[in-house]
Design goal:
- Helix content is 59%, strand content 2%.
- It contains 18 helices and two strands.
- Strands 1-2 form a two-stranded antiparallel ribbon.
- The relative contact order is 0.06.
Length: 375
């Protein structure tokens, strides 16, 4: 006999039957939630509304495309560009009010001074301190004449920076702007000012990308040589891979690509031949890494030979004089000549002693590349 008090309680009965939704009356919240999306669903299912929306987007796209064309593809006189753009905007009643029309805020200078010192802007520029487009053209002619008269580079650089600033403030981007940056870049190369050169090169790249004509191939070759100087292989391969067949056929670009090839192969003989025959101003850029390549070449030579005449080093590594070759070896702690009492014409380098010193100097001087003004 078992007592009921000792028996376990029976399990609770759970009703799993779902409520029927067919006869359920929706509440106020459900009605409000369903009605909230009703106008949007009707709008997107209405073909006429979709057509109106597509026409509105297309109209705004055409307006922006016309503005970009007027801003970037006019290579004629940009002195009156802002007036043309404002009149064009006035004729477009459907212009998007959310897009800022920067042409309305473009400054047109009124100063008639040819020369003006460069000052960094710390406030809104004033038209009376800015030179207009015709005056800037006269300024460039005067600066070119001054440069031919061997004036100070510091002064000419200051004037070119002021000229570039006036162009930027007035949003002038045409073939004249490209010419200004190209001339300043060449002057900077000639004066060994790599900071200003790199700034000009960066600005020229953006101007060329806008389709403005200029010496594209010449500065493409310079850019390849600069990447070789920096030993940036990944960026160099990417840059070379984007060259067009027209650019590759240009003599300056073809020369720069040849320099890239012989450096990759370690062919120092062909490298120095290309250095002596560099077109345009490519040799000015190669001057910045010529000592590094001479050291690499000497490491190879001193591994292959026991003794090398100084005259051979002068000729093979493109030195101008025997004194220059001897000074280079001395500055790299590799002037291990067999007899220092002999004149330079009879000196012979002891390669076995010079090789470890050259390798040590290469690690100390050229393992890291420091490029001034690199962008």
């Amino acid at each position: 006999m078992q007592l009921k008090s000792l028996m376990p309680p029976p399990p609770p009965i759970i009703n799993l039957k779902r409520k029927s939704l067919d006869n359920q009356v929706p509440g106020k919240k459900a009605k409000k939630g369903n009605n909230r999306f009703a106008p949007y669903s009707n709008e997107y299912t209405d073909q006429a509304a979709l057509n109106r929306r597509a026409e509105r987007f297309q109209r705004e796209h055409d307006i922006e495309r016309n503005k970009a064309f007027q801003t970037h593809h006019k290579t004629s006189n940009n002195y009156h560009n802002y007036r043309t753009s404002r009149s064009a905007s006035a004729e477009q009643p459907d212009a998007d009010p959310n897009v800022v029309d920067w042409d309305r805020f473009t400054i047109v200078g009124t100063s008639q001074e040819l020369f003006k010192d460069y000052l960094r802007l710390t406030s809104e520029p004033k038209p009376e301190t800015i030179r207009p487009y015709p005056v800037l053209q006269q300024t460039l002619l005067a600066l070119k004449k001054k440069w031919k008269e061997k004036c100070s580079y510091n002064w000419i650089c200051n004037q070119f920076k002021s000229l570039r600033q006036d162009l930027t403030v007035q949003r002038i981007k045409n073939d004249f702007t490209v010419q200004v940056y190209e001339i300043h870049a060449r002057m900077a190369l000639e004066s060994n000012d790599m900071v200003e050169y790199n700034q000009c090169q960066a600005s020229l790249k953006s101007l060329y990308d806008l389709g403005i004509p200029g010496k594209v191939e010449e500065f493409t070759a310079y850019q390849i040589l600069m990447l070789l100087h920096g030993r940036n292989r990944s960026e160099l391969n990417l840059y070379v891979g984007q060259l067009t067949p027209k650019q590759k056929a240009d003599p300056a670009v073809r020369h720069a690509l040849s320099v890239q090839r012989v450096m990759a192969m370690g062919n120092y003989h062909s490298f120095f031949e290309l250095y002596l025959n560099a077109p345009n101003m490519g040799a000015y850029i190669m001057d910045h890494f010529i000592d590094r390549e001479r050291t690499r070449a000497l490491i190879i030579v001193t591994k292959a030979y026991l003794k090398v005449p100084l005259s051979f080093i002068m000729k093979e590594l493109a030195f101008d004089t025997l004194e220059e070759a001897s000074a280079f070896l001395r500055s790299h702690s590799a002037d291990t000549f067999t007899d220092h009492r002999h004149p330079d014409t009879q000196k012979t380098l002891d390669c076995k002693q010079a090789n470890p010193k050259l390798q040590q100097t290469f690690e100390e001087k050229y393992r890291r590349v420091m490029i001034r003004g690199a962008i």
